[in-house]
Design brief:
Helix content is about 60%, strand content about 15%. It is of the alpha+beta class.
Length: about 575
């Protein structure tokens, strides 16, 4: 037996395996074309193998076609194996000789055996290791040795004597070795194919993400950006790749970016907000999630960042904050309005109650005081002049009775305040007539600076006279040591302002908010209804009262009247 021939066939099989693997997994990707090309390849290699056979007798040859076709069935599929078997069978038929039938049958058996073992491997999920490949080659070639008995008996016995041992030794080993190599090639190329597909899926995914992806190396030079990232800054990906990250931030944030990069070199991943510089020069607010990239030795190789443009979100947050602030202001204003309304309601209820009380008490006390006053008058007139001490006491009773009557009159005035009809009134003459009736102390200097041609106002003259009487009387009482009393006027647009100014003791800050409240007074006498009556009458006549006062410097009451149309 010539082993050299079998070794030549084995070398041919090695070439076949390399060409087959590359054709199957690299060169041809379309399935129908791939099956056709592989079938032609296996068939032609089988033809070449049959062209360098070991010839036992004329027409009886042995070669590596069985290995070729069995591996075709195991590693390819039905179409490829069928094409290869047809080509090999046609060539064996062309060669002719006594072994044509057996040779064609061995081609069919080898191809079918490979297909059956392929189905078994796929169904059981078996791994094609060296042991299984050797067993596969041994089984195939044992079947073929038995098939050789289809030859004449003397030829079959000669085969058993001279061919069986090398046939069942070299070809199963060749099947194992070549099959193992093909399986390794198939797995390696399949891994490459899977990696290429995985990378393509990754690139497709990154390219279609609605989030910017930015990759840089250890020197902060851009190595990859997806279209979303480039569009976010107004560039194309090609314009950004190869440029430093510092080209896309403002100079004011360089130090901050360097600090982030130092943390990345330490293997720290983090999320933070940063301003990025667009191509047109404007800045955008961005949310970055950055991960350090390390090699297998743990050395820093760069960074990978997911970037989101949050400029719109920042704008909405700012608008919400502003609206929240405005809402708080409105709530505060409304709260203050409610407090004022509540205060006014409480004050109105107090005033109503006080008015009822004043009316009732005033009527009940006025008659006894009138009797006391009349009795004092009669006693005073009937007593002799010599009883001066008694006369002094009677005068004291008379004075205090007058004071009590004045308080009761205030109570009755307060209880009688009601809206009344208004009339066109000339205020300069009204004030002049009032000043003629009010006794002005000698130590008080009066300056009536009202013009005689003041515009007309629509008010109730009697009630306005009470207002001025109270203000002038209070001003005089505020200057017990004397001082200056000025009455001035000013016309502005549709408003007339008359001010009553004194140089008296003034009003303290803590009392300013209480001066118009009923029953509040700082005087030793009186019950504090004068300014309460004044405020109520002013409200009924659409007069606005303003007060300005400084302790020790005096007080000014300003009355704003609406002009008559």
């Amino acid at each position: 037996m010539d082993f050299i021939t079998f070794i030549d066939n084995a070398a041919l099989l090695l070439v076949l395996s390399i060409l087959s693997s590359n054709m199957q997994l690299r060169w041809l990707k379309r399935e129908p074309l791939q099956s056709l090309a592989l079938g032609l390849l296996y068939g032609l290699v089988a033809v070449v193998a049959m062209s360098i056979p070991m010839e036992l007798q004329p027409g009886v040859i042995f070669d590596g076609r069985s290995v070729i076709l069995s591996l075709a069935g195991l590693f390819t599929g039905n179409i490829t194996t069928l094409i290869a078997c047809i080509i090999a069978a046609a060539w064996r038929f062309h060669l002719g000789g006594a072994g044509v039938f057996t040779g064609v049958g061995s081609i069919i058996i080898a191809g079918l055996a490979g297909l059956l073992f392929r189905r078994l491997v796929n169904r059981k999920g078996l791994r094609l290791n060296m042991g299984r490949l050797f067993l596969f080659g041994l089984v195939v070639h044992t079947i073929l040795v038995l098939w050789f008995f289809t030859l004449p008996k003397e030829i079959a016995l000669l085969i058993l004597q001279r061919v069986t041992f090398p046939y069942l030794t070299v070809f199963p080993l060749a099947t194992m070795l070549i099959g193992g190599f093909m399986e390794t090639q198939r797995q390696r190329l399949q891994v490459e194919k899977d990696l290429a597909q995985s990378e393509k899926r990754y690139r497709d995914l990154v390219s279609t993400l609605n989030e910017g992806i930015w990759e840089s190396n250890a020197d902060m030079v851009t190595t990859y950006v997806n279209p979303k990232m480039a569009a976010m800054l107004g560039y194309t990906p090609q314009e950004m790749i190869g440029r430093s990250i510092y080209d896309f931030i403002s100079s004011e944030t360089t130090e901050a970016m360097e600090n982030y990069h130092l943390r990345r070199q330490q293997g720290i991943r983090e999320h933070y907000e940063f301003k990025l510089l667009c191509k047109d020069g404007h800045l955008i607010d961005a949310q970055l999630g950055v991960t350090p990239l390390m090699d297998e030795k743990g050395e820093f190789k760069g960074s990978l960042a997911g970037v989101q443009d949050i400029s719109a979100l920042k704008l909405v947050q700012a608008q919400l904050a502003e609206q929240s602030w405005r809402l708080e202001e409105l709530v505060e204003e409304r709260t203050q309005d409610l407090k004022v309304a509540q205060s006014q309601l409480i004050r109105a209820e107090k005033l109503a109650t006080l008015g009822e009380l004043a009316g009732g008490v005033g009527h009940e006390l006025r008659n006894p005081l009138a009797v006391i006053s009349n009795a004092v008058y009669l006693l005073k007139n009937s007593m002799p002049k010599s009883t001066s001490n008694l006369l002094e006491y009677i005068e004291m009773i008379e004075t205090e009775t007058h004071n009590a009557s004045s308080i009761i009159n205030d109570l009755l005035d307060y209880s009688r305040i009601q809206p009344t009809e208004k009339e066109i009134t000339e205020l300069s003459s009204l004030v002049a007539g009032l000043l003629a009736k009010i006794p002005i102390p000698e130590n008080v200097v009066l300056e009536n600076q009202l013009r005689a041609d003041l515009p007309m106002t629509n008010v109730n003259a009697q009630q306005v006279e009470i207002i001025f009487t109270n203000l002038i009387s209070n001003a005089i009482e505020a200057m017990p040591e004397g001082g200056s009393l000025k009455i001035t006027s000013r016309v502005q647009k549709n408003r007339l302002t008359i001010a009553v100014e004194d140089s008296g003791m003034g009003i303290s800050r803590k009392n300013m908010s209480k001066i118009f409240e009923p029953l509040f007074t700082t005087k030793p006498r009186g019950i504090g209804l004068g300014l309460a009556i004044t405020a109520r009458l002013a409200e009924l006549n659409d007069i606005q009262i303003r007060v300005k006062s400084r302790e020790g410097r005096g007080t000014t009451f300003s009355l704003d009247f609406l002009l008559a149309i």
